[in-house]
Automatic annotation (TrEMBL):
This is DNA-binding NarL/FixJ family response regulator. SUPFAM superfamilies: C-terminal effector domain of the bipartite response regulators, CheY-like. Pfam families: GerE, Response_reg. The modification 4-aspartylphosphate is found at D52. It comes from Sphaerisporangium krabiense. PROSITE patterns: HTH_LUXR_2, RESPONSE_REGULATORY. Keywords: DNA-binding, Phosphoprotein, Transcription, Transcription regulation. One of its GO terms (molecular function) is DNA binding.
Length: 218
């Protein structure tokens, strides 16, 4: 696995590189700003990019913008975004063009090495990894009345785990139900959110986006 790291904090940047190399992963380049990151992507053709949301010069959304551009240049690039805080707009923007090979983690998750590496490998393998804390904080925000009110408590549980990037098998294990039950719940979610099979968008992604954008108090 070839990895490029884009992080303006030198301690975190070098710490990540040391951690990943200790796991026998190939860190081919590191960068401290968006321009250096894109140059590294062009030069090294990595499999995965680990990108900080806020980077120089304005420390706003340079990392997200650069990640989107990197994916435009290399559509097969897996991207794991790191953020110090839950930033709803960035989380939803990241998923807006599809969830495959994408992750959004809080930086504190890096200190939980096993969880961080699991998320990295999930994203590299084509999956999605959204920090549970991101989902939990989004859930605590109230929003106007919306279609999520149609879902049962169990369907909301399933949708929350979908938002974390879990597949049907993992959801079934988490909830101690069969995969068939999970599949049925997901069909009901699609129906209640008015996501028709003929929709051109990925219904699973659309359901997760609706969930993240609207939030829910449990």
């Amino acid at each position: 696995m070839r990895i490029v790291i884009a992080e303006d904090d030198p301690l975190l940047r070098e710490g990540l590189a040391l951690l990943l190399r200790a796991e026998s992963l190939d860190v081919v380049a590191t960068a401290s700003d968006a321009g250096g990151f894109l140059a590294a992507v062009d030069a090294h053709a990595p499999d995965v990019a680990i990108v900080d949301v806020r980077m120089p010069p304005t420390h706003t959304d340079e990392g997200i913008v650069a990640a989107v551009e990197a994916r435009r240049r290399r559509p097969d690039l897996a991207v794991l975004v790191l953020s110090a805080y839950v930033e709803q707009a960035f989380a939803t923007d990241l998923l807006a063009h599809g969830s495959a090979r994408l992750g959004y983690l809080l930086k504190e998750r890096v200190g939980r090495v096993a969880e961080f590496l699991t998320a990295l490998h999930r994203v590299a393998g084509g999956g999605t990894a959204i920090d549970p804390e991101v989902v939990a904080q989004l859930l605590s925000r109230t929003r106007p009345d919306n279609r999520l009110d149609r879902l049962s408590p169990r369907e909301l549980d399933v949708l929350a785990l979908m938002a974390e990037g879990l597949g049907n098998t993992a959801i079934a294990e988490k909830l101690f139900v069969s995969e068939g039950a999970v599949h049925k719940h997901i069909r009901n979610i699609f129906a209640k959110l008015d996501l028709a099979p003929t929709d051109r968008t990925d219904r699973r992604v659309a359901a997760v986006l609706h969930y993240l954008e609207d939030g829910r108090r449990t």
